[in-house]
Specification:
Length: 394
């Protein structure tokens, strides 16, 4: 790698984070983190693991009990026809899963079709594997879904995979079962891998359905599915994710890289994962319900106090408001590199202490939008709205 890594982009979210550290009493709506704490079942299981001296090396792909529980969950909840727990491995969070997967899947120059906008580490990990992300627009008017004709037109002789992320960061769009069936059919016809990032599988609103593409008939063998405990169990800092893939060669490659990057995922954290899965799942539904209420509060606040500045329909999944900037907000004299969304983000951070991420950071189709995370607690959301009112009051 060496010099090559210099050419791999770093996410603008990091630049925003650095700006936020310079602000006193900030509203941290920039970070994709929930305000909840991990449930007691996770804490107690980790305490027990410490008391029981689980401080030694483990099997590379994961603690057997955790793999068993995950295989059972994937079959029961996601309807994925996992054959044995050997079909999966745990990772140091979902981001590590993406790293292992793209390094194992791609030859230099291979293309992966990604949504535009998209979560920047998706592109970063493809580029780090010497692959080429090929953006395909998600359309706001279609609930941030693809035009399937456009998606098909992006396939070239170099295409190796289509990456989908539903519910989606940053837009909150949720792909329908029919969308995923059509994308799966494309992958089968054109002999492509389907990479499914299901980080927000538990966070859907208004009765929307989360569908795991690997559960659709005939698709398990060409799908690699990535999951994480980060959002469902408020375990962002603990770093626990998992990958399921039926292809043994691909798994063998990922296992090798898993070993070389961390030997095994931290033992205590894996026991925390066991606690999460053995315990009551009420917390997951509790978080989801509260996030739906926060979404509604946030959008009501925006409509009332910044309705002439921002537009957009409440999302059906994930926990981001990806708001369209109307033409009524005048950009300052020198917007950063001509980007209105960067100008807006800098304005809100410097004048209003409101953390947010410019849409341009998620790809060309994100320009003109700003992302706010509404998974912060209600007081912080209310503070951000009040501050926004003050910023935009002439
Ligand atoms: N995929 C997407 C789309 C995400 O937004 C995130 C978290 N921001 C992840 C994967 C992975 O999260 P983690 O590494 O915390 O598991």
């Amino acid at each position: 790698m060496g010099k090559f890594v210099d050419a791999v982009p770093f996410s603008g979210i990091i630049r925003i984070r650095d700006m936020m550290y310079g602000i006193e009493h900030p509203f941290r709506l920039d970070q994709g983190d929930v305000s909840f704490d991990a449930p007691g079942t996770v804490q107690q299981a980790m305490h027990r693991a410490i008391d029981d001296n689980h401080s030694h090396y483990l099997p590379t792909t994961g603690v057997p009990r955790l793999l068993d529980l995950l295989a059972e969950k994937l079959r029961r909840v996601n309807r994925i026809p996992v054959r044995t727990p050997e079909d999966l491995m745990v990772t140091t969070g979902g981001i590590h899963g993406l790293y292992l997967l793209f390094q194992s899947l791609l030859e230099p120059g291979d293309e992966v079709i990604v949504p535009d906008p998209a979560w920047p580490p998706c592109m970063g990990n493809i580029i780090a594997a010497r692959g080429v992300p090929v953006p395909c627009t998600l359309h706001e008017h279609a609930g941030w879904r693809y035009d399937l004709g456009e998606l098909e037109a992006k396939i070239s002789p170099r295409t190796r995979a289509i990456y989908v992320n539903s519910p989606h960061n940053p837009t909150g769009g949720v792909l329908t079962r029919a969308d995923l069936q059509a994308i799966g059919a494309l992958c089968s016809e054109r002999r492509l891998w389907l990479v499914s990032d299901e980080a927000y599988e538990d966070i859907v609103f208004d009765g929307a359905e989360h569908v795991s593409p690997a559960s659709l008939p005939g698709l398990y063998d060409r799908t690699v599915s990535l999951f994480t405990f980060s959002k469902s169990y408020a375990m962002t800092g603990l770093r626990l994710g998992y990958i399921v893939a039926s292809d043994a060669q691909l798994r063998e490659r990922m296992k090798k890289l898993l070993f070389y990057t961390c030997s095994n995922v931290t033992s205590v954290v894996q026991f925390g994962g066991i606690g999460a899965l053995e315990g009551s799942q009420e917390c997951v539904e509790g978080f989801r319900r509260e996030l739906e209420a926060r979404r509604d509060l946030f959008y009501a606040g925006i409509r009332e106090h910044a309705g002439d500045i921002f537009g957009g329909t409440p999302p059906r999944g994930a926990f981001y408001a990806f708001l369209r900037m109307t033409d009524s907000w005048p950009p300052p004299q020198s917007p950063r590199a001509g980007s209105r969304s960067w100008a807006m983000a800098e304005h809100l951070i410097s004048r209003g202490r409101i953390g947010c991420v410019p849409g341009a950071d998620f790809g060309a189709a994100g320009e003109g939008y700003v992302r706010f995370c509404f998974a912060r607690d209600r007081a912080e959301l209310a503070g951000a709205i009040e501050s926004m009112r003050a910023v935009f009051t002439p």
